[in-house]
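Lesson 9: reading folded outputs for more than one chain in a single document. The general rule is that every protein is listed as its sequence immediately followed by its structure tokens, and records are never interleaved. Here is the first one.
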Amino acid sequence: MKNKDFKVITDSDGIFKFELKKGDVLRLSHPGFLHKELKVGKLKSTERIFRVTLSEQFIKETKTINRPYDVTDKKSFLGAASTVYTDKLSSMMGTTILPALEGRLPGLNVTQYRGARAHQTTANFKGDIIGNIPLFGTGFYSDNTEFNVGSRGIGPVVVIDGIQRELYSIDPDAIESVSIQKDALSSMFLGMRSSRGALVITTKEPINQGFQLSFTGRFGVQSALKTPNPLSSHQYAYLLNEALQNDGKDPFYTYDDFNKFRTQSNPYTHPDVNWFDEILNKSAITQSYNLNVTGGNKFAQYFVNVGYVGEKGLFSNPSSSDAHDTNLSFSRYMISSKVNINITDDFTAKVTLLGRVEDGNQPGVSYGNLINSIYTTPNNAYPIKNPNGTWGGNVSFDNNLISQAINSGYITDSARDMVGGINLKYSFDKLVQGLSARMVGNISIQNRSYIQRSKRSPIYAIVLIKTVKRYILSMDQAIRSLIASTR
């Protein structure tokens, strides 16, 4: 009861006995759920039935917390840490786990600065007197190329199962928890890098008895939050003339031009093309599938996760005559496993393996250049195609946008990763309580490739020669015709 020392525990059916009176406030709580308060109204009998639904806690309360290199009791942990668990990570679809962390971990700032992943072709090591040393946390190599991740104004050190790896493109169903440890005490074992804090990612542990199998499938539709509504051709012409006249200059477009833009009586010489509608689809699909298998006994336990993620972009698909897909796309196949072996009562071994295959695709001009061109091309710049089927364009806009989207070749990039780790622990509890020795080993094999095959289609501008009274699709032909007419 609130503000009183009276407490009671319900039985398995939720029944409890309590002396109540009108106006008392019951405070109901359960591990893993948010507490709820219930005010007692007028009592009509000695027995009352309360139907109460408790909401699950956003952040679970566990007895232990994962530190960068070990697990400690939460009661003895003196640092500052915030944690989210797999049920929150898997509630959002994405190619990395970072979208699921936005706004959910106090002290961790995640902001998106790019709409799609960048090509990963830069080597992630530097030469030293002892050989090649991996680079972490500075540009490449991190598989995160879309988000800024910071804690206390600087990027945290990412630790996955006790090994420093900046891997964010991981199946969320294979992760048990993600914890941001913000103070120097929590990350003191990182040495000179302890001021950065630690983002500790812990993968799922196998169960120690029985067998469990689970399958999860997700399918979604994604769309742009908002796209600009560009001016129509006649609106653009009107406002441009007004701006020129305000500067004391002659208008660029005549009344006849304005009328043709408005009525679309000649779409080849006076086009009105909404490039956003022509190049971008309204929506695109994203999907993910995951299979988990776990089991074991007192001697050995295992956990295996197999997952697939596929995501399409919003660019219009090429026509059936094109040999290659030029839409923005991403796919990932991933398998991870963890095996725990109790060699003796004092000696244990833990082996982890992770394999990942990632493939990306985009138009040959790169998606960034194409998006920028859409924003800077007015509706009346040129027609998509000319009457004879050639790509439209002119001197000011010499690269047709639709041609760039579906006819400029393609860029593909791929990543192949194989990561393995072993953790050996020997306990000396028989000699000194709490004393143990641990050996941790890690091997990583990574491959990055990038193929760009691009082309640029010629464009042709329609030039109206009044003396000949026909459209000419070549500047050379226009000059020849003009010379012939003057003779």
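And here is the second record, again sequence then tokens.
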Amino acid sequence: MASNRMPSKYVRKTNTAGWTEETLQKALEAIDSGRKIREVSRSFNIHEATLRARRRTNNRFGPSRIFNVDETGISTVQKPAKQLGPKGVKQFGSKISWERGKNVTAICAMSASGSFVPPLLIFPRKRMSPTLAKHGPVDGIYAVTDNGWSNEKCFLQWLEHFKFHVNSNLENPVLLLLDNHYSHISLPIYNYCKGNGIVMLSIPPHTSHRLQPLDTSFFGPFKGAFNKECDLFLKTGKQEKITFADLAEIFNNAYVKIATMEKAISGFNSTGIYPFNPDKFTKEDFEAASQYLPTICDDLDSTNEVDSAPSTSSLLTSVPSTSGLATSVSSTSGLSTSVPSTSGLSISHQSRIKGKSRLSVLPKEKVTIAELSPLPSYSGKGKTKKK
């Protein structure tokens, strides 16, 4: 009787897995260099589905395909730099543009390999004007909103600009690190990233100061350079005030000085993103912050433990109080003075408890409004009757 069981030793009849692991790695490197998956599949004789699956499992994002994007604000009123002044003078004037400036948002992005994407500047205006882009960053883009803040529409515009510069697609995706700002979350943004090979990875809340490369290495030096450029612009005497038409040029002068490969690589290295370092932060970095407050209130029973200090005299001076409240002040000399108080508390200062000076605050049970601020009474004098 013939058996329907499969033989114990199965012999593959096709040449599907005729490649080695070394050949597979070379094929994946060829895809990372920019070649299409279908072309690489035919060249290395590896199935196209196998290449796509290995790319998903390996998470092959090189340093040139890892980016970080974030927003920052600049103003038409700079923060004056520290200056030298005469000895003994605590304050002296410094020239600024306006009393109160207007905010302009800049969206910047950089990669782990040291490259930068041209920024987007958002002005608080109703209509866009060509004068706003005068002498601005090369290949930079501009937008306007009512308040100068970023929104979903502006960020989608930046994503299209980002996709054009990094050349991302489904076969050659990029990893984009960003925070949880409301302008980053919308259905059109999700659909656009999904269809153009942009993998968005959000940073956990309240950790951007340690996990965001732009915050750790770029925005700080950039703000300092921007303030210096504003001071230099005002000292040259070009104009008395910095307007929106001058802001793009000042921004570009500071941007080209700080947007260096060293800053970008240092930011990703300091956060442990690339090269990947899971031990970058210790247990102390995850501990909750502790708050220490001075002890100003003691228990009511602690007043019974007050030691009697040696005194040379026991004098008591009484001063009448209009509020009915009194503050008792005791000293080492034994002098106790009762003075008026409007706080409604009986406070004993410098009481010696077990050899230590402590402050005891004893709340009063009930305080009326008349005791705090007594109303004047009418005496009926000083008026004459009309005839």
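What the second record shows: The radius of gyration is 36 Å.
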